[in-house]
Specification:
There is one protein chain. By secondary structure, this protein is mainly alpha-helical. It is built from 4 helices and no strands. Among the domains are: about 70 residues, no CATH class; about 30 residues.
């Protein structure tokens, strides 16, 4: 009975899942980075499509707003004012989206932390080097008043 338990345990321990090798771990990391890059590319394509749509819509809305403003000057009607307010709101939203097309926290997050990390590392290395230089004793310079040993001329 004890033998069968030991055989089962030995069989189970040899059938354990193998640990991934370093090459497999690197391949998995590469696949994860590739998937993240693909997601970023898709997000960029979506944002590009939004910007293109907003850039095409913006001139049309400006024209409609100008037309409504001219009509409103000729005959002030509350409907025209409401339409003009609605168009102005749409224009403000589109301009906001176009202004924010380049600067988002997500696009600045990674470079920001890299700057922080490497600036901090540079400061630490600078302190280390300054400390190392200050710890070494400088060579004694000859006193300007002391006579310097002259070398004999081989004449």
């Amino acid at each position: 009975m004890v033998g069968s338990i030991l055989e089962g345990w030995c069989l189970h321990s040899t059938m354990a899942t193998p640990q991934p090798t370093e090459a497999q771990a690197e391949e998995l990391a590469f696949e994860q980075e590739l998937a993240e890059t693909e997601r970023s590319l898709l997000a960029l394509k979506e944002r590009y499509a939004q910007v293109q749509h907003a850039q095409h819509t913006l001139p049309e809305l400006h024209q409609q707003r100008d037309r409504l403003q001219r009509q409103l000057k000729r005959q002030p009607i509350s409907e025209l004012k409401a339409d003009l307010d609605r168009l102005q709101t749409q224009l403000d939203e589109l301009e906001y989206h176009l202004e924010s097309q380049l600067f988002t926290w997500d696009s600045l997050k990674k470079p920001f932390w890299q700057i922080i990390r490497f600036s901090g590392l540079g400061i630490v290395v600078g302190w280390f080097l300054a400390f190392a230089v200050l710890q070494t004793t400088p060579p004694k310079a000859p006193s300007p008043l002391a006579p310097t040993p002259s070398t004999p001329n081989p004449e």
